[in-house]
């Protein structure tokens, strides 16, 4: 019998494609979650008209706390009347019941620590885009490590997916979710009177990177453009100026995944 290499975990199932974005099973899940989200916080959106209500694109935003995905999902499903598809960390899909719910809702697991390749998750993401759906990604790949919770250096996956699929990239920024659940904190403090503010930006111009012979450095440069665009939107929401350079966890000696606050204790 074949054995798995040390440090690997089993391959996860992928979500099944539905021709209609807002299918019946997704509506059932949303019917349960939407009232709960409304009790947790109120979402205030500026610039919603900039986001297409049909057709494929990659939606990118900053990542401060684990509430962020709920805020973006609510934005996409309730405000845009579309289905939110996230590329999400594999650990969530290995949790009994939750994993099945996420797959039913069309979320895509991404391998980070199990030793598995991400060929299949990326293929599924491409399929969604090719069929006119949209994909939401937090390019940082994890909660920001920046000491003041500004957007940090992004990973290239979101940009590569958009360039390979030749679809637009739209940025959003949000602020306020950390008041409901602190970054890596356990003190859950919901309240319908609390607000998460979302600011939608214009489509990011990546035309100079859209050519067949794009190099790894160009993908990295395009990712920097995306992260600086998101940072500019966060600055508007916070009414503050961000540091001139994106925070680099590696340069700061921080772990790339997991709770870096716990690691340094």
Task: Compose a concise summary of this entry.
With 265 residues, the chain is α/β, with parallel strands linked by helices. The protein is built from eight helices and seven strands; from the N terminus they run H-E-E-H-E-H-H-E-H-E-H-E-E-H-H.
Describe the protein in words.
With 265 residues, the chain is of the alpha/beta class. It is built from 8 helices and 7 strands, in the order αββαβααβαβαββαα.
List the helices and strands and how they pair.
Elements: H1 24-40, E1 42-46, E2 57-61, H2 68-79, E3 87-89, H3 90-93, H4 98-104, E4 108-110, H5 119-130, E5 134-137, H6 157-165, E6 169-175, E7 195-200, H7 216-238, H8 260-263
Parallel strand pairs: 1-7, 2-5, 2-6, 3-4
Antiparallel strand pairs: 6-7
């Amino acid at each position: 019998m074949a054995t798995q290499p040390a440090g690997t975990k089993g391959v996860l199932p992928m979500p099944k494609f539905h021709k209609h974005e807002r299918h019946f099973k997704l509506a059932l899940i949303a019917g349960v979650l939407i009232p709960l989200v409304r009790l947790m916080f109120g979402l205030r959106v500026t610039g919603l008209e900039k986001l297409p209500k049909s057709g494929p694109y990659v939606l990118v935003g900053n990542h401060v706390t684990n509430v962020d995905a709920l805020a973006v999902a609510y934005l996409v499903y309730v405000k845009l009347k579309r289905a939110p598809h996230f590329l999400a960390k594999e650990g969530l899909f290995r949790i009994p019941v939750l994993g099945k719910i996420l797959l039913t809702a069309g979320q895509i697991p991404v391998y980070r620590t199990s030793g598995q390749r991400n060929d299949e998750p990326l293929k599924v993401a491409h399929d969604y885009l090719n069929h006119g759906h949209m994909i939401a990604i937090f390019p940082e790949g994890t909660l920001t490590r920046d000491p003041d919770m500004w957007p940090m250096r992004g990973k290239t996956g979101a940009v590569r997916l958009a360039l390979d699929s030749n679809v637009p990239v739209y940025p959003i920024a949000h602020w306020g979710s950390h008041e409901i659940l602190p970054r890596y904190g356990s003190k859950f403090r919901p309240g319908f009177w609390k607000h998460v503010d979302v600011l939608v930006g214009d489509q990011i111009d990546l035309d100079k990177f859209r050519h067949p012979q794009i190099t790894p450095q160009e993908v990295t440069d395009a990712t920097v453009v995306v992260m600086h665009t998101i940072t500019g939107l966060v600055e508007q929401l916070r009414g503050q100026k961000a540091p001139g350079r994106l925070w680099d966890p590696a340069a700061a000696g921080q772990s790339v995944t997991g709770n870096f606050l716990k690691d340094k204790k």
